[in-house]
Automatic annotation (TrEMBL):
It comes from the Bacteria. Residues 78-161 form the Malonyl-CoA decarboxylase N-terminal domain. It holds the Pfam family MCD. Residues 164-402 form the Malonyl-CoA decarboxylase C-terminal domain. Coiled coil: none annotated. InterPro entries: Malonyl_CoA_deC, Malonyl_CoA_deC_C, Malonyl_CoA_deC_C_sf, MCD_N, MCD_N_sf. Gene3D superfamilies: Malonyl-CoA decarboxylase, catalytic domain, Malonyl-CoA decarboxylase, oligemerization domain. This is Malonyl-CoA decarboxylase.
Amino acid sequence: MQKIQSSYLVDLLSTITARPRLGSRPSDRRSPRELCDLLLTDLGDLQSSQVSRALLAKYSELSAEEKYAFFQMLAQDFDIDAPRLADLAAKYAAEKSPDTLARIIACAEPRRQELLRRLNRVSGATADLVAMRLDLLAAMRDAPELEVIDFDYLHLFRSWFNQGFLVLRRISWDTPASILEKIIAYEAVHAINSWEELRRRLLPEDRRCYAYFHPAMPDEPLIFVEVALTEGIAGNIQDVLAEDRPALSPEKIDTAVFYSISNCQKGLRGISFGNSLIKQVVEDLKTALPGLTTFVTLSPIPGFRRWAERQLGDLPEGAADAAALARAMAAAGDGAAGADALRGYVAHYLIEERHPRGGPLDPVARFHLGNGALVHEINLGADLSENGLRQSCGAMVNYLYDLDQIDRNIEGHSASGSVAHTRALANLLKSHAAKTKN
């Protein structure tokens, strides 16, 4: 496992890799199409760099309509030569010549892939291309035919952003303010509303935050995770984020609670960082804190309320509408019959409901279960924030990463779609099924 770099080494790496752009981007009278054609010719390194900078500068000045036209041009004029590829395939079927195979491989790659590779040779271009893909994703909403271009971005990004290039950094109160500002802005699960609130998440010794960075984007976090070090498994976010919470002494810590994971770069949608991030953070925490025995999440259930609203006819008495369901979940105490019924619906949603394309219906469940976790516990009234009530009626779930069972859970989930869960939840599901059937 790759270890976290020291602050000095990471800053050194950032200094080396954050090469400044030399001079301002040149003004160029040629059209984007002319610059694209020129960039794909046999240019020297200096001229190729100049053309790349000119094309990136030209793109940045385009309007939304002009960017749409640019993507249409890439889709239509820089695609594969399908008739020629068919002829080569037929020729290879008749005689499996290595020369023909090489020509097939070259012909099967769209010209726009090589265009993107050459653009990426310019210092700072990786971030520009990530931003360009974000524009493409927006254009695809009205023009799904542009998805053929997205295959090229994904193919290249998965290579450029593979785990071997990623640098894991601990984010602390001493991290540069420019990066801390981005942590505040990118937090997607539990909003950070002030610098004081950020300080409470970073400064105490029983709190951790880790982020992945890429050498080509040294000041832009790709994904980060916030961790609470606790005694026992945390069952609600209010206690984790409490303002007057005393820091836990190191000798009492036995559990690492991953309570927020935020992807930062929307232009990298579809590139998975979370799996390797969690594994690396677990390894680092095990080394730093040998007393840790439990690794668990405190996760939102973002799709539950939407699903519950479609099931209102089946909900127990006292939960006649979604607002009543949210209030009931927030107020229900342990052992209450209403709480047991509501926990049953949440368990059914997480473990039994399936997405049309496979896997659990809930997106957070798909992520953690696909990475080998198991559904450990359902917590009612665990997130009473406006967002928590709106998304999951205040419920949260603990996914347990049992290090001895992760591989087995992944294998079962991949092979049959099984959802690993505790015996207590299995009994709850059985009881829930019997009650709703009657």
